[in-house]
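Good morning,

Both structures are done.
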Amino acid sequence: MDFENEENTGAEEEFDNIIVLNDEDGKEVQFEFLDLIELDDEEYVVLLPVEENPEETGEVVILKVEDTDSESEESYVSVDDQDTLNRVFDMFKEKFKDEFNFLENEE
């Protein structure tokens, strides 16, 4: 799920939509929130890892949104179903086809 950002915004851009998540090792990782996609009564977030060089090709991360006991918090969990991932990514590509240059999978 690779794409390039066609807008050269540079590293000086303010990141109002940064989400910090913990990886499996407990290390904090920053992601830029790109979109919220609804599919089959479920919500999925499309995130882009914040890299040192924003002009490089990036790979998005798609996570399922799950409610928690707290009304002010939500949890993000990985999605194992490749069909669901592809459907969410296809919806994201269609919505942002004019903003990103999506690269074809080379499998």
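Second structure follows.
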Amino acid sequence: MPATDPTDDAAAPTVSGRFAVWARLGGGLALAVLVLLVVSFFRGPATTLQALRDASQTRNTTELARHIDGEALRHSLGRLLLQQTGAALSPDTINDRQLLSQFIVAGALVRPVVETLVTPEGIAALLQGHIGPRPLYAGPPPRIETAWSGLSTVRATVMGAAGDPTLVLVLRRNGLSWRLAGVEAVEASSIKLFPSPPPAASRPDGR
């Protein structure tokens, strides 16, 4: 019978031990990568908003375009502007033909306005909570509250100086990244246009 090499028995546990160590390291690395991906996914909307803010301040149109869905954002802005225009019309005092002609004119006027809103100045204004061709002020960024609508849509509500909501920015997932894809008006019921008046003091005569 051939003589057995005593080194074979010694090498076997060494190789097995090394494999176990590498397996543990590989498992730990995979878990760390998974945790980083999850954290990055849930921080994605806030990261996108900050990237939009930085790009609009530096007027970096290339970087800005990476974080917006241009077609969807233009469609959303145009629809919102037309809704606001329609609310300003008074159908009780004009006939249907006049109302239609006014909507056609409004649509023609909305298009160039929309194009100004997807510029760095327009995006900066949206991040401040209003629709305008340029930001109102260069102060600290307003508070933004985010709410998830599933795993692919986040609504970021811009809060005004008084703590009231002013505009909703809609972010949609694009793979593992997020882009600004639309805007929504805040529900009228949640907006306080005027502060509540103080209770009237009763007069001595009871009136």
